[in-house]
Amino acid sequence: MNADERAALLDALPPRQREIIRLRLVVGLSAQETADRLGMAPSAVRMAQHRALDRLRRQLPVRDEPGTTA
After folding, report:
1. What string of pLDDT tens digits covers the 70 residues of the chain?
2. Does 31 map to a domain?
3. Which helix (H) or strand (E) holds 44?
4. Coiled-coil annotation: which residues (predicted)?
């Protein structure tokens, strides 16, 4: 998967989830710092991050596990 394909997956996220992923994983803010910035509860930030990552995982192509044969 190239950078453009990864960017397209991120762009497909709802805006709030995309912003949470950016703040948490790219900028490196804590859940509390992200919550403060977005006016949310830290638990809501963690839940939105979980849902966004779950959505991204489901959209990724399936890769073979190392050491297994097809």
Report:
1. 788 888 899 999 999 999 999 999 999 999 999 999 999 999 999 999 999 999 999 988 777 666 655 5
2. yes
3. helix 42-59
4. none
Q: How far is CA 26 from each of CA 19, 36, 67, rounded to the nearest angstrom?
A: 10, 17, 31
Contact 23, 2 (CB under 8 A): no
Residue 46: inside a domain, yes or no?
Answer: yes
State which residues form the domain around 23.
Answer: 3-59
Q: What is the CATH number of the domain that holds 54?
A: 1.10.10.10
Using alpha carbons, list the distances in angstroms from residue 16 to 2, 21, 49, 52, 63: 24, 9, 10, 9, 28
- The single-letter DSSP state of residue 66 is T
Q: Is 2 helix (H, G, I), strand (E, B) or coil?
A: coil
